Amino acid sequence: MEEPPAPPADCEVIGLTYNLEPDGAIFVLPIEISFTYDPSLIPEGVSEENLVIAIWNGERWVNLECAVDTVTHTITARIGHFTAFSVLAYTHPGIFVASEPSVSPTVATTGETVTISVLVTNTGDIEDTHQVVLKIDNIVEATKDITLAGHASQKVTFTTTKDVVGTYTVNINGLSSTFEVKAAPKAINWQLLGGIIAAVIVAIVVPLVIRRRRTA
User: Fold this and answer.
1) Which of 36, 124, 130, 168 is the most exposed place for a label (fewest CB within 10 A)?
2) Pairing of strands 139-148, 113-122
3) Cα dihedral sign for 205, 206, 207, 213?
4) Is residue 4 part of a domain?
């Protein structure tokens, strides 16, 4: 099309827009349509896997469910009628969203390792880097930088140990959880316990042996 409809906001057309005719032709069964795209036209930071074929419904562009082959640089979708078609690359900036922190164990003993993890997702279209900050009781405990493609997710894990009994508040990028630390049970001195048991046995057995000998 020499004068195709404008693409949506934060979006670029990859290649050309095609108007397949006869316009409005409807198929009893869906047919498959494929486009070969030039990867050099894809905006920086946009993943090939996120390209879509869109159709013009007379008012706006509508995305189709697509399969992208990054080896042959081909994108395929199924359609039910003819209209205008384009391959689109969305370019919304990276927006990072984290799940609520997962804490394990939620009740630990002093000195025990506590694992804290979140699932971070880039809900934008452009690859970007994000810093995940772990705070415990509003004090920065650790940070990690992650780079995610658009619509990709990654699990981020931290570990910590506490030697003071109490309840701690975990905060990762504004989302919070808690864990409790209790006193560790005192370690058993097996050597001392063994000596006490041996002394008790001797105190009981030796008098019995002496008594039996006297009786005999």
Assistant:
1) 36
2) unpaired
3) positive
4) no
Q: How many residues would you count in the chain?
A: 216
Whether 196 and 204 have beta carbons less than 8 Å apart is answered as no
Query: Contact at 8 Å (CB) between 91 and 10?
Result: yes
Residue 1 lies in a domain: no
Which phi and psi (to 5°) does residue 201 adopt? -60, -45
What is the identity of the amino acid at 117? S
pLDDT along the chain (216 residues), means of 10: 91 94 88 95 93 94 95 96 94 93 95 96 94 96 95 96 95 93 76 69 64 65
Boundaries of domain holding 21: 11-90
Phi-psi region of 83 (alpha: psi -120 to 50; beta: other; left: phi over 0): beta
Angle at 37 between CA 53 and CA 34, to 5 degrees: 50
